[in-house]
Amino acid sequence: MTITQADIVRFHEIVQKISGSYAELRLQSLNTNTISLSGKQIDTVSSGTTQTGSIRLYHKGAWSFVSFNDFDNIEYYASRALEIAGHLHYGRDSGLKKSVPVKIHRKIPQQVPLSAISFDEKFELASRYNEILRSHDKVQTTRSIYRDYEGWSLYLNSDGSEVFYEKAMCGVGLTSVAKEGAIVQPFHDSFAGYGGFEYAYGLESEAEKIVKMSVDLLDAEQIEGGTYNIVTDPDLSGVFIHEAFGHLSEADFLYENEQMRKQMVTGRRLGIETLNVVDDGSLENKMGYIPCDDEGVAPQKTYLVKNGVLNAHLHSRETAHKMQEPLTGNARAISPLAQPIVRMTNTYIENGPHSEQEIFESLGDGIYAVDMYGGQTNLEMFTFSAVYGIEVKNGRKGRLLKNVMLSGNVFETIGSISMIGNDLKHAGGLGGCGKGGQSPLPVTTGGPHLLIKNVLIGGAQQ
Amino acid sequence: MKESTIAQLKDNSLWFDIIQTSGSSTPVEFKNGNLYSVKERQNSGTGLRVNCGGKTGFAYTNGTDFDETAQAARALAKYGEDEGFSLPQKGADYPQCRGFTAAEFDTAGEIEKGRELAAKIKDRYPHAETDITLSGGNGKRTLTNSNGLSLEESFCHYSASASVTLAEEEGRTEVWSAFSADKSGALDLIEREIFWRLDNSVRKASVSSAKIPVLLSAQGVLSFLDILLGGLDARSIYRGISPYCGKIGSQMFHPSLNILDNPLLEESPHRYSFDDEGVPAEKKYLIRNGVPETVIADLKYAWLLNGKPTGNASRGYSSLPAPSFSCIELLPGSRSFNEILASVKKGILVDSMIGLGQSNTVTGDFSANIDLGFLIDNGELCGRVKDCMISGNIFDIFSKSLEAASDPFFAGGSRVPGILLESVDITSR
């Protein structure tokens, strides 16, 4: 579906007519192409159009929210939002932080426009990667996924803000599953960016690395459960800070709970002087980039931890008002069908002073935990699954280890970071972050090598 | 669906099917005991699967551009796989899905129910942060295919969940409870469960690293079933990445383990009389007396494995069908959960875990942090344990002595009792 300036003017009028302290309209139209190949099979070749919209109204300290995919009856949905607002009696005595109205029209540039690439070429690329993934005789199955979308989103609010975003995304997800006897070992990586076909091609050497890693991991040995000093690689460092600390910084977990606020009070020392943690949605070439958040607030670079001290929280308009803190531009929704909640964007640990070599020399004996399958936290305890581990003795890397599941208390573990590397790397592909039933929201995670003391790793008891 | 679209597909394809889904729901949310939002969600869409010259293409829309979508599906067919299965014919015998009622979601009444539950929790735990979501909705799916099959089924659902957080000096306790049904219900069950979990979390306990008995609550069992049943589908078997490859019909588990897939489960909002390809629903044993018996299959993978579809094809309008479990029933044993608990001399009751989803579902190796677990000493719960992990191989653990409780918990999509496991690795600081 296309949208005209006259449509936008008409939608502004609808938003202005909604009475209440604050109202907003979000619309999105996307055309998506997906190719998914698995082993010898063609899983999915599909093309689709989705249009989604919602109207949200703040009234008596609570939200009325109506979502829809019928763009012909937006006036009706606006009237429903008003009717629903009549039920809002028991809301909190709260408010919303004011933000300067914005007018942003942004178009994502495409070096190799998606429209210039035929479906044949996209299919051929996904097939070529799949053939590389299948190239080893120990590979049992594979998955080669190509996905792109193009479209637009529109955000309007009753303060007069207008954000029109012409977006495009292209990416690839590659998985190889190696098998030998009863041992089955998957390895996966994903590559994506906002732009055109340039993000999908030229990944043949990455596909080769994925095959090699899945096969090599067949020989990995089971780790023995216990407490270890570990070094995390940049991928795992990034996921660690996102899962273990980033979510704790999201103010919707804090703003109504006095005891949680005490734990996450700014000024609290969390770690060593060289620890700096940042969230920055304005980094244009990263998957967590947003031209504006889903409440019309511009993204910014926010130091969550500065020089080892808790420095700031991430906010929506509501949480910023309640906690009397500055807006950070972190109200995000996975689509107009969902209500914005406080989310991260591009979150990373800044570089520290140490080289990788210095860190391994200091480790002495321990575990090098590399990359991650995933992570989860309950805001106190966290669990991360490293893709693999390497036993380290006297600073030297030795045997390959599997099922390296790290766990611990968030604050204790951040406090146990004793060295920070100088090799920051960001990661983010077709996947993303999950919270409140909204997944996957595009984000990136990043960090350098870290040395962390006394980390609990699950495993068999000898 | 427009006649012109149907005509276009009839003239230009070997076969086709069209799935249309529509639904609406009204979630009411409380945050920290206060009303946070009332939502109204409406969504609908259409998926067209078209086989041209033996190969299948697929396209979808949530607009009304059906002709264009059909053209896109036909154009994509040349990239598809050779698929030689047939779509269901008219006249099959479909079971009755009895008991569905029209959704009567009284928004004002639900707001009152939520407020009352929040007040009760606040009364007992003044510093607790309580989030509650109550939601009702209904919907419809229609399935049309080139064999003249035309099916329609309505559904309605109600779900309630509560999450309560208590911040502590260094850390927090978070407990939750949820259920779903085909009609609005009282929140007594949620209230009971929340208080059971909170009351037992007040005391703290510690455990040393060891192999010890683990009593899984029904919630804990449900988490493990995701891994246990993960490969019992025809797609994983066909791809050779299922732990069940070559083991169907062999004694893999302890004989007391009986698990069914039951798409006709009474009161479940997820029950159905036909799957998303029009195959009749049926109740069947997945694992009987510890022996894997049925591999769930959709039309494609049943054809590839020379088997029969089991009525387990699942899809939304924007995706192709894939085999998926319906409602899971784990058959109960003879002693109640409390009787089993009373018989455990030293062990851990595990209610929820974090990180279990990152386990190796193919090999069954798992390792997870115990999110909510209690030390059992001489048959009694004596405090919450923290900072410890549960690890092992799920196929190994469920092959050893295990006992299912006699009082299953109905969680909406499943009916599952707690289970006592003989010996599991616990790693602690």
Q: How many domain units of chain B?
A: 2
Percent strand of chain A equals: 35-45%
Any idea what the shape of chain A is? globular
How far is the first residue's CA from the last residue's CA of chain B? 62 Å
Query: Total number of helical segments of chain B?
Result: 9
Query: Which two chains share the most extensive interface?
Result: A-B, 82 and 73 residues
In total, the number of strands of chain A is 25
**Rounded radius of gyration of chain B (Å):** 24 Å
Tell me the β content of chain B.
35-45%
Structural class of chain A: alpha+beta
> Could you estimate the helical fraction of the residues of chain B in percent?
10-25%
Number of domains of chain A: 2
| Helix-and-strand structural type of chain B | alpha+beta
Main beta-sheet annotation of chain B? 6 strands, antiparallel
Strand order of the largest sheet of chain B: 3-2-1-4-5-6
Low-confidence stretches of chain A: none
Outline of the structure:
The complex is a heterodimer of chains A (462) and B (429). Chain A has 462 residues and is an alpha+beta fold.
